[in-house]
Design a protein that fits this description.
single chain, 192 residues, mainly beta, 1 helix, 15 strands
């Protein structure tokens, strides 16, 4: 099967996010919080694992912190009566990285080296959960691996098997992102 990612959910979206008519572009309309968007359906397995990719469409200079990108066990269809939290990482069962150099594994924060506030318009950010039995989380910028979280850490923090949904936080320096529905995962260097 060719790679395919569904659009963002029109129902489960932060109050400061405007989605394009096709649902693939999420733009923060004001503020810096309440800017969460979830994939409409679970991520579909590709040969290397679960993968989705965004293109940065708009940024703003001088803001500390940027895009949050991750996966969640929370099904957006279950959120219709509930408001999304102000930040993606506050949603239970969510594993997200970025912001000001942080990772949040099911709500627990630890620092990381990747700083997404330096992303430029046109850059592509991908997330891969490897399907090699390790379930490492890899972040790619323009096809180059910039970060790796060991699957053992993700699992000990509560990551379970699928279904998993894409989740993004269009935060601070990042103003607009577009899901790329046909993006294929880069060849990951598997660590033995």
């Amino acid at each position: 099967l060719p790679p395919s990612v569904a659009p963002f959910s029109q129902q489960a979206v932060g109050s400061n996010i405007e989605l394009s008519q096709d649902g693939f572009t999420a733009t923060r309309s004001c503020g810096c919080r309440e800017s969460v968007a979830l994939g409409k359906v679970p991520l579909r397995r590709q040969t290397p694992g679960l993968y989705f990719e965004l293109e940065v469409c708009q940024t703003v200079e001088g803001w500390l912190g940027g895009l949050g990108i991750g996966v969640t066990h929370t099904d957006p269809s279950q959120l219709k009566e509930h408001r999304l939290p102000d930040k993606a990482w506050r949603l239970p069962g969510t594993f997200v990285v970025g912001y000001s150099g942080s990772r949040y594994l099911n709500g627990v924060e630890c620092p990381v080296d990747w700083q997404p506030d330096t992303l430029k318009v046109g850059q592509r950010v991908g997330l891969l959960l490897t399907g090699d039995g390790r379930t490492d989380m890899l972040i790619f910028v323009d096809g180059t691996e910039v970060m790796r979280l060991p699957g053992a850490e993700l699992r000990s923090a509560g990551l379970r098997d699928e279904p998993l949904f894409a989740i993004v936080d269009v935060y601070n320096a990042t103003v607009s992102v577009k899901l790329l529905p046909g993006a294929a995962a880069p060849e990951a260097r598997l660590k033995r």
